[in-house]
Amino acid sequence: xxxxxxxxxxxxxxxxxxxxxxxxxxxxxxxxxxxxxxxxxxxxxxxxxxxxxxxxxxxxxxxxxxxxxxxxxxxxxxxxxxxxxxxxxxxxxxxxxxxxxxxxxxxxxxxxxxxxxxxxxxxxxxxxxxxxxxxxxxxxxxxxxxxxxxxxxxxxxxxxxxxxxxxxxxxxxxxxxxxxxxxxxxxxxxxxxxxxxxxxx
Amino acid sequence: xxxxxxxxxxxxxxxxxxxxxxxxxxxxxxxxxxxxxxxxxxxxxxxxxxxxxxxxxxxxxxxxxxxxxxxxxxxxxxxxxxxxxxxxxxxxxxxxxxxxxxxxxxxxxxxxxxxxxxxxxxxxxxxxxxxxxxxxxxxxxxxxxxxxxxxxxxxxxxxxxxxxxxxxxxxxxxxxxxxxxxxxxxxxxxxxxxxxxxxxxxxxxxxxxxxxxxxxxxxxxxxxxxxxxxxxxxxxxxxxxxxxxxxxxxxxxxxxx
Lengths: 201, 257
Fold this sequence. Notes:
The structure holds 2 protein chains of 2 kinds. Chain A has helices spanning 6-11, 23-31, 35-57, 60-76, 88-107, 130-145, 150-158, 164-171, 175-197. By secondary structure, chain A is mainly α. In chain A, helix 8 (164-171) packs across helix 9 (175-197). Chain A is built from 9 helices and no strands. In chain B, 37% of the residues lie in helices and 23% in strands. Chain B has 7 helices and 8 strands; from the N terminus they run H-H-H-H-H-H-H-E-E-E-E-E-E-E-E. The relative contact order of chain B is 0.10. Classes of the chains: A mainly alpha, B alpha+beta. Chains A and B meet through helix 1, helix 3, helix 4, helix 5 and helix 6 of A and helix 1, helix 3, helix 4, helix 6 and helix 7 of B.
């Protein structure tokens, strides 16, 4: 850990290739104040944070604002990051969650739930809680990060609604391989969801 | 009895027909632990299917990164700001403020040693919360949860069982904690709903885990009151892919407005 003057840390950037760093190593560099880690973190999770804010607030300018606040806020409070409490993306998502909730409350008067409600008792209200929205978008983000063939198999199954035998035929893989990849991929998604959302529950 | 392995449960959630044999199916029907894991996989499958791939956002990302850079570099020489205040809900903020005041006196770097002990306690508490189980996590991880209302849930005609619903006011979103003790057929699950007192509008809070208890964030846009959404309803739902209320309610109660 660097305990020197912050200006020194900025000038002598450690010779680490952050692009290929694990999330945990990146988090450690971030907490230590290496600003290359801030940039790499933004590369990895900036679009997730933006998408969550955009879907929750339905405004691109507010989403940009929130995204900026999350990364600047996390950077300024980086000394408080603790690996034992969760992953770096989990921390960022947790900060975003609170910022978005603040913003939603601020506009609450205009956007009452009631507005989104139809008078038909058979129709569900579509306004979903922020926590559920975040879970969905974290999963969608993770689905795009899963390495192939696992990633492509699950995307075909979930997003294109293809059967395992259709996927096996299209990818020219044995059916058993496709099924086992999808099972392991699902377990990975569940673990990742737990990791990224555990700060906010 | 040996529990089913995660691989089998994931296969079941993915609708792989050959995932479980008859004996394994029997175990699953009687084992809350395996059921709970299966429910989590089912939730991941459902949420994943509901969400499309996010669109590419490259132009906005470049602009946002430039703003972050300029804000970070202008504040680099200044002392660190008070850490994000909205984080207070996860119990870190109270200690942070005082520590940072101290840290500026010793050259801008935070004093790590003193804070560590305090943090070990928090980490231990958090770890404990995870062990206690689904019902316990929320209470332990949040400092200022206040039970604003607690009501009994009673069985509707044709059903047996009972439960409770508690309206929790945390620092951020209000939450509803629901606990039900009632029989559940093997091929059904329970879902928690808020129904408006006008009898016309309802809102699904989500699946009630097989353990019989769950905590649900209420929609952030609900405002300070419940806007008439006062009836807590727990329904029995078939696994039929239909998101609407089955019209088979097991227990119900009414929150004070």
